[in-house]
Design goal:
- By secondary structure, the protein is mainly α.
- Helices cover 69% and strands 8% of the residues.
- It has a domain of 91 residues: 2-Layer Sandwich (Fusion Protein Consisting Of Minor Coat Protein, Glycine Rich Linker, Tola, And A His Tag, Chain: A, Domain 2).
- It has a three-stranded antiparallel sheet.
- The N and C termini lie far apart (216 Å).
């Protein structure tokens, strides 16, 4: 009972004391006002009582939160025991995982670098092959143009030489022909010198003989190509060639001139001494 009273006094002693003081003050004020004060109606007394009561209620209400704000201590959870071996294993696994990720990244980077390097190598090879083909094409074109220029030059030179050779040939032909004709006069004189005139020969008679010779100028064969119309005259002309037998001057001719003009030639026999 003593403990209860002490707790009661400790909790409600101050409000009771304050209330008692206020009531004493109020009684004193009312007594003073009733004895010597003004004759005013006592209307304000309930208000004062209400104010005091409200104030007390506010004070009491103000104390309640203080009681509620007392921190409540939570029961402490028991600390878990730390397994160092397990922690080391987890740490090793984490390091192993990080190392594997690092190796995977390095491998991926190396694969990517190798791929880029291979692509660059292929591009370089393609570029070099293209440049080589272009260079070879340029070289072939240069060789083709050079060959065309050489052919053109050679054709020009050959044309010039052909023209020159043709001019020389024409000149040589004219010289050979002139030389051959000069030997024809020698043959004509030799045949006439060995001709024996037949009695039936008349002025204007002419016989054409085909004569084949050896390169030495020796007579090989004689044929009448065109008769004069007089058999005796024709036979006398053939006999004159046979008596001449050989024309040694022809040995001085060039072989090609002899082959062209005197291997086989035609002799028109028309003696100049015919008068009748």
């Amino acid at each position: 009972m003593l403990l209860v009273n002490k707790a009661f006094i400790k909790e409600y002693g101050l409000p009771i004391a304050v209330t008692a003081v206020l009531h004493a003050f109020l009684v004193f004020w009312l007594a003073f006002d009733f004895v010597g004060g003004k004759n005013e109606p006592l209307v304000k007394q309930p208000k004062m009582m209400q104010a005091q009561l409200v104030q007390l209620k506010e004070k009491r209400a103000a104390k309640k939160p203080a009681k509620q704000t007392r921190p409540k201590t939570k029961p402490k959870k028991p600390k878990k025991k730390v397994d160092k071996k397990k922690q080391q294993q987890l740490k090793k696994q984490k390091l192993k995982k990080l190392k594997a990720q690092k190796l995977a990244k390095q491998k991926a980077a190396k694969v990517k670098a190798d791929k880029v390097k291979a692509q660059k190598h292929r591009a370089d090879q393609t570029r070099l092959a293209k440049e080589k083909l272009q260079k070879e094409a340029l070289q072939r074109e240069a060789l083709r143009k050079q060959a065309e220029a050489e052919n053109t030059r050679r054709e020009s030179e050959e044309a010039f030489m052909d023209d020159f050779a043709e001019d020389e040939l024409l000149e040589d032909s004219s010289v050979d022909e002139a030389s051959a004709m000069s030997y024809m006069a020698v043959i004509q004189r030799a045949v006439e010198a060995n001709w024996s005139r037949p009695p039936s020969a008349r002025n204007g008679m002419k016989v054409v003989l085909s004569i084949q010779l050896f390169p030495t100028g020796q007579v090989n064969n004689i044929n009448v190509v065109k008769s004069s119309g007089n058999a005796a005259f024709d036979r006398s002309a053939v006999a004159a060639v046979q008596r001449a037998d050989r024309f040694p001057e022809l040995a001085n001719l060039k072989p090609h001139v002899f082959e062209k003009y005197y291997r086989s030639f035609t002799l028109v026999f028309n003696p100049e001494d015919l008068r009748l």
